[in-house]
Amino acid sequence: MADQEHELWVDRNLQYSLEKFHEEMATKIIWGPSQTLAAWVLDIDSVDVVSKHGESVNASSGRRCVSDVTTGEGSGIHGNGGGRASNAAPENVEGTATDEDKVYKAIGFKVVDERAEEAAREAMPIPTMTFEMQKDMGESAILVDDNVLEEPMLAVRQHAIVKEFKLATAHSDTQRFRGHCGSLGCPWIIRARTQHDGSVRVQINEGIHNCASRARVLRKMASQSWVAERVIPLLKKKLSMGPKVVQEELQDKYKIEIPYQTVAYGRQRVANKLFGKWDDSFDWLYRFKAEVEMRSLGSILEIDTEIVDDKVHFKRFFCCFKATIDGFRNGCRPYISIDSIALNGLWNGHLPVAQALDGHNWMYPLAFGFFDSETKENWTWFMEQLSKSIGPMENLDVYTDACKGLEAAVAKVFSNSEQGECFRHLMENMKKYYLGDVYAKNMWPVARAYTPHKFKYFFDKVVDASPDVLNWLKEHHNLLWARSKFTTEIKCDYINNNLVESWNAWIKEHKDLHVHCLADAITEKTLTLFAKKRKIANAPSIGILPAVIHQLNAGSRGLGHLKVTKGHLEEAEVTEIYKDKEVRR
């Protein structure tokens, strides 16, 4: 294949996106079998492009992007030009959730997966029907599933709702149904009878309705059973869809008014049909435990019960997979973030989680569980199972929001570990007792300071304003919350316990599921996450890890308050200027 040269012009006045750039590059360039495109950053001023084998990484002008492609092994994409990098302010880079998705897309894996899925769909053609057959099906009688005896009535209700008339019942039993239009003087009637083979025969009088539409009349036709049948495809598509959204969807589609309570009970019927009853869900955790222990030897799963009125009741659950244990001990920072999330289902329990950070500073799910409330007893049991799972570690930092039960449990189980607390929670408590700009203006720099002398510089201002702050912090917040106090072996400078927020966003669509379905959903998401991590790790190296490039791009933005004065080829003075005109070097 001959060398190619292309010119790509970008109008700054248009909203030019990364997807648009990728599409134009994919269509205008004849790609070889061993080549693909991955774009890291695209803004007004800069574009970074790498080849599949990673031999070249260049920045090109935002106004003009010139690229050439060569073929064969070691081929690459080359650009020329210059630009600046910018991104969100790095103040809160910590707590990043699943950056794997961004890097996975940037490398080009997502595009490859989508093309593979499209090719797979094309390889399995769907049989088509003739126009005559479709017409016959559209004009046929009401479709009825004979698995449930009340189906004939449901089918008739559906027909009445779609055709916008009021249905009245003349006779109904398990074998026969006879109904008519509820409007006075309308001749329309319908009959249904169960056959000997279990099927249902429906006969409709084809008389035309001469009555007015009843589309917006609040009626009893939309029963719980009817709602349940209509909700099934909605919940299969989106499990987190609540009764209010379901009500809006059905009313918008069928142009009728349905009471909220009817929708709520109908949705609950569907949930029981799809996932089973809540009481059975806790029993299914034993099956989940047995399956995981059989498929993943070395995983730690524990179920604790209690006896109430001579009956065995579920109390708490813990799960830590063998793969997450090995990954944490061999490839993650010795840092664990602990917190819990309130569940949204019929069981008002909590989901305790233990999160870690991998080498990319990405969220690493370590362990999770279920218990009814955040008590010292429950937290101690959870921490004991976690300690048993990860084993003894020489250096370990356990970070929490310092709630009483959790703080005591960590101190008891991980007594030899460094224990930190979320600074954001500390500041929320501090605002209740100490008001004024001096605290907000200096406490955050105190926490973020890396050196003891800078810590002292800002903290002295706080103590000068209120000397009793020292006693208050010792009494209520005596854990580690400042970077200058952290052990350097931990290799983590997070001062906020934001990992749980990342976890919450990661599983928010599943928090109302039955507990055994939630455990299975977390397992599936963990499996998918690890597959992406593995694929990114095995991607061809381009000299700098893709995740590092991503972090450098993010960290290079929001630096407008810094002034750099060069004094040497490898040395410079950085001046930090704040709104109050105070200069720090």
Overview of this structure, please?
- The protein folds into four domains: 1-126 and 540-585, no CATH class; 131-204, no CATH class; 224-275, no CATH class; 279-516, no CATH class.
- With 585 residues, the chain is of the alpha+beta class.
- A hairpin with a 5-residue loop joins strand 18 (562-566) and strand 19.
- It has a seven-stranded mixed sheet, with helices on both faces.
- It starts with a strand and ends with a strand.
- It has 19 helices and 20 strands.
- The chain is globular and about 95 Å long.
- Mean pLDDT is 75; it is low at 42-98 and 133-150.
- It has helices spanning 18-28, 100-107, 109-123, 131-139, 151-163, 224-237, 243-254, 260-275, 278-295, 322-331, 376-390, 404-413, 423-430, 437-448, 452-465, 469-476, 499-507, 515-537, 546-555, and strands spanning 4-9, 38-42, 46-50, 57-61, 64-69, 77-79, 167-172, 176-181, 189-194, 200-204, 300-308, 311-320, 332-342, 350-358, 363-371, 397-400, 418-421, 562-566, 572-577, 583-584.
Q: In one word, what is the shape?
A: globular
Estimate what percentage of residues fall within beta strands: 15-25%
Total helical elements: 19
- What radius of gyration results from the CA coordinates? 31 Å
Mean pLDDT, to the nearest integer, reads 75
Q: How many discrete structural domains?
A: 4
Structural class: alpha+beta
Total DSSP E strands: 20
Uncertain segments: 42-98, 133-150
Main-sheet strand order equals: 11-12-15-14-13-16-17
Head-to-tail CA distance between termini: 55 Å
Could you estimate the helical fraction of the residues in percent? 40-55%
Q: How would you sum up the major sheet?
A: 7 strands, mixed
